[in-house]
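subagent[fold] <- orchestrator: predict structure for attached chain, return tokens only, no commentary.
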Amino acid sequence: MTAYSPWLVHLTESSAEPAIRLFAFPNAGAGPNVFVELARHLPARLGLWAVALPGREARFGESARADLAGLTADLAGALLPHSIHPYALFGDCSGALLAYLVAHRIRELGGPAPVRLVVSDYPPPDRKNRVPGKLLALGSREFWQRLIAQGGVPPEIAAVQDLREVFEPAFRADYRLLAQYEHRPLPRLDTAITSLSGPKNSNARRYAAGWAVHGSRGPHHEEVGNGDRVTDSPVALGACLAHLLGDLER
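subagent[fold] -> orchestrator:
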């Protein structure tokens, strides 16, 4: 058994050792609960752990992190003991960038690459993303209007003004992390990178091609579900991840 870490929440009910450990990174402002439904639609051979950042859910009393390099190092340290087993990373929206950086940090610590890096609805790391900076420049009302329009905000938060005020610091902290990211050339990851999207994402195949140059194989794109984001369709997403990881062995 791997020691408990506050950075990871085990969402799979089965206590059996999974064939592959899957670590899911939520979108900005979100916590492990966004993957609870996904966990119900994964086969037993895939164990699901969700990344838990300070400032939300069980770690609500902690200050949200403001240093991207330090956060990446802490997450890599939490995942490193798991890397003695076959593992994969899934990053939803802005969680894709964090998953990518953590994969590199694990390699720097001497750990193996994931069997696959799966990203969804986010531009490749070498493409300048001005959205975080633009969001941070907005006042509270406009900030929430943009977040809700983009999707990814839990409906119980989106609908209640008082809850928005409580959770706004965590959302803004995550966008500050994204805004401070500056790409630097890194060696290719020794793993395939699959880019997922909903059917309405017109950038999907361009994003997939961009992500592929950071991995070991050519572009690989999968269209998932029928919503704006792949996490809107947990049944389809679970089936897709099961297929992508089904034949992988170390």
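orchestrator: received. Logging for downstream: The first strand starts at residue 8 and ends at 10. The chain has a mean pLDDT of 90.
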